[in-house]
Amino acid sequence: MSMKTEGMTLDPTCRPASPAPVPSGCAEAVLPSGREPKPHSISRQALVLITGRGLAAAFTFFIPVVLARYLSPSDYGTFKQIFLIYSSLFMVLPFGIIQSLYYFVPKEPERIRTYLVQSFVFLQGSGFIAILFLLGFKKSIAVYLNNPDLEGYLFQLGIFIFLMLSSAYFEALLISSQKINQASLLGFVSEVSKTACMLIPLLIFHQLSYLMWGMNLFAFFRFCFVLVYIVKEYHLSWKDFEWGSFRQQLLYSVPFGFAVILQVTQDKFHHYVVAYQYSAAVFAVYSVGMFQLPIVELIYTPMSQLLIVRMTALRQKSTRQEVVSLWYDITKKMAMVFFPMFVFLQLIARDFVIFLFTETYLPSVPIFRIALVTLLTAVVLTEGVLRAYADTRFILKVTFMKLVVTLILIFPFLNWFGLRGGVITLVLVLALAKAVLLWKMSQMVPLPVSQLLPWRDLLNIAVFSLLCSVPVLFVNGIHFSSYFVGLGVSGVVYLLSYLVFLFTSHLITFDEKREIVRMFRQVGQRIPAASKS
After folding, report:
1. Structural domain harbouring 430
2. Is 293 within the bounds of a domain?
3. Is residue 524 assigned to a domain?
4. Rounded to an integer, what distance in angstroms lies between the CA atom of residue 236 and that of residue 120?
5. How many CB atoms are located within 10 Å of the residue 403 CB?
6. Which of 175, 486, 529 is nearest to 350 (CA)?
7. 351-386 pLDDT, tens per residue?
């Protein structure tokens, strides 16, 4: 889907009275009559972000699939351990400074240069810490993760983390400045480039070390592009750094940063325990079971980001009812995606895992089925609401609670249930945390439990998601020539059934129905054109 929106291009002439550039589109911040313009529909903004990330996910989706086929289970387990370390450090080291841009840029757009310089300096220092940590503790890390081969890749990993952190603020800047088209394009180009840089060296040389250098090549070019773009468009200078402003930014981000440390510890702890107790090959089986569909991230993240930006603005200008309406609207839309996704993936779990990762990873299916329950917890974006209300300290408290519960449950559950014990722990802790955050939200807005969620809409979506599985059960009884054909037919049948439900329900507006029809028509027109060319 393509969408043109005014104010998405950077305009150097669009400046306030102060010398600091503000986000593009500032010319339309106030209409000639003095009235503020109507904000862009959150549905349209989310669709733009999701479309860009969806196209990117079509490429990145194949990274673990290709690796599982070209590498032995032991080597694939090594790669998953590398990625585990990367994802842990990449999430922890920014310490909430990136997320702070979603709060400060919409709130004080005239000081955007100050927040950019401060974020850049902080992230550079964080990346340097990553290099020192991985070099200083490389032997200990390899021993703890029960994999001596891991040590040889940690220097390359440190360079990659440094370069990625140094440009990690760019997407947050674009989204918080309402440059949704640019953010979507950036996500697509970035992920496609990363996929190519990872897989091409691997397919040629069949060695993980070349894959790592390909990743570093991508990170270097990404860093250079972002740095040149930011300096040129915003005319950044070290003089823009303000200690007083930096302290305010840290006051917001530090509680969130501590929460992220606890969150990453809680989320990744079961991975580290499995890696410690089992071989790299067994860890590969566990990682396949915990495989996260790209569509989850590409929907959850932009919806959460847009919720924070929009709700922060509404709290300053609008009524409580408008805030509640926004919350209902986003929760309903998240359920319309994740409820049917959960039901459908449960139906096809076995064939899906075999199709993607071969029968070598058939033991991953039970783990995958349990992990799918996390889709249901993703429906409520409670963390985004608390961040919009600047209550990051409560997020810290809840995350600490999650870590304590994880530490209590993980070891006995692994002993009782084997590899499945790790993911069972994760699901139980997530459900408990969402319940506590919903309670807190009910106190802040405030809302009684009976009005906390759009209960009737959620029930309708859940019931019809289950009913749409009936024709798929008949399809699953048919023997197809390949897993690809069987999964494709099942997917089409479920999708058509669910679309009939959506278009005959009140859950989406007339404009949203018309937008969906327009998207399908565009796809239908492009397929014949592509086949002729």
Report:
1. 39-511
2. yes
3. no
4. 11
5. 19
6. 486
7. 999 998 988 999 999 999 999 999 999 898 888 888
